[in-house]
Fold these 3 entries.
Entry 1:
Amino acid sequence: MFCPKCATPNTDGASFCRSCGANISLVPQALTGQLARPSEQTDLTDESVCAVPGKSRRPPTLDSAFRSVFMGIAFLLISIALSRSIAQAGGFGC
């Protein structure tokens, strides 16, 4: 079976192309005309499919937005302070 994206030959029954990584699991079904109807296919936008393992999917809040902004500002200030202290000390081995 050949990949429809990059035309690399792959073994029969392969799920992904060995060259480009494209999903080729449905290619044999498409060639024989046996694809499932869209209503029969699973919904890939389901939150259980898209959810990151170990993380709960909570709606964004103003509190989390402020926390993220202040953490970014703190990181920026610390990195500026460190870069200035390294420059004043003469750098690493220079």
Entry 2:
Amino acid sequence: MTGPARLQPSKRMLAVVADDPAVRGSLQFSLEIEGYEVRVFDDAGGLLNDPCAAGFDSIIIDQNLPTFDGLELVMRLRDRSVFAPVILTTSQPSGFLARRARGAGISIIEKPLLDNALADKIQSLLQR
């Protein structure tokens, strides 16, 4: 028998933005196993230029992107009326980043992503 039953997300659509192909693939795979539909983007511009960006149920963004950082991407998305819940992933977030993210209503999950931390956070955000 497996662990406790998890609520199925009923095919919610997620976006993942990460410049590292291994990270993108890993996140896509693990989130699809959780039952989500996942679109991946290798840079901030890909998501910003996607005509369906406002339709995502949640967006997972790596803080360290090449063009501009994840927090800046969130601000630009909000300027375009994209208000999906965001999870920022980063290694060893500074106090400054944590305060800025908290002030903007953005969740941070520290890398490496362990156990079900990301899936649990997504589920929590989507239940709000």
Entry 3:
Amino acid sequence: MSFFDTLDQRIQILFEQHNTVYEAHRNTPSLPWCLTESTPYPASYYRLDTYGSHPLKRLVNRVAGGILAPIRDGYIQSVISTVKSRYFLPLIAMGHGISDRELTLFLERLENHLFTHWIYYRRWHFAELFSFINTLCLEACTFFKLPNDPYQIIKQEHNNRYLGIYTQIREDHLESLSFQALLYLVLRANWLDCYLEQTRINQFIDSFSVEINDVLDQASWIDEFMLNHPYIDYSELLTCFKENSKHILYELDNHGEILFDLLFIEQWLKQGHHVCISTKQQPILNDVTYDDLKSLLQNPELNHLNDYLKTKQLTFIGNGSNDVIALRYQMSTEYIQAYTRADYVILKGQGNFESYPLLDQGIFKSLPIHYKTPHFYLLGIKSDLTRRSVALIHPKILVDSVLALSNQRIN
């Protein structure tokens, strides 16, 4: 019996498993380890049935989105198009063998399932839908005989490209590089993201090389850019950095980018802070996993971090997730303990921004969500979904902006 003979049944089983998890969280939504109050925790900023650019659109979606064909079909087509263009076509471009016929069959079965069960899916947050889709795509990748980590080559290429630059910065510039200059590089490196189209990644890599050289030459514009930027809460982050020894939970995002994170983290270690690095548990796109970080730290270029690791001033954990947007109600015990211990949490990337919403978005108003630990979100705005989420706080923000946001702004 082939994969496609049992695919409809398998999709249904996975849907029921995910819906059971969703219902359990909906019945007991509070997360006492991170929330200050017994308030509902949304898995991301938007639910499918309250999404829309205007309150009237959100109201129509909520009231009739499950039965109005244009709304329902638009969502479903968008999901199918995204799965194809962002998940499978990049794998095909990398040389992984997926036939057009098999991919078409898979997407048709998924589309039919979403159509049949849309009344349930539209209650989920985007993070929950993405988690279900990812689980299903992983099973499809197994059938297509793809490796467990299909982005491994790309991840290695990104690390190799920036490992030499990492060494150069440490040896020649780290002592003279200002905190704001290093923060700028950390923010810009977030564009090393395989969720983007390859042409956009290539264009960024070319332009980023120029920016790095400019920053290393101590460009005069850096200080003014960081201090006066409307979307960078620089003074709050600097105040945290200058405090006496604190525990920092630092959640990573992508490969290549990680080398700039490690430069940044080293500065926090030198300042006397304890840093716990959090990674994904299993592979997803070019995100850093626990095993990836463990392997990367074996490089001779990173030997200087060994003393911090031996004294446990620097530690690293897996957060229990292999989703683009981690479901915070499914975190590992190690992660929950690290969050509880932390004085500050630094979160890299769009997925981590979405996973700890600062506002619970309703139809007509948003309610603030209060976390026990101060958060700093460091990211580039690369998708319209995240732009809309950030626009709840910064209404005029555009795609391709940088963001360094303190949740103290909301609290």
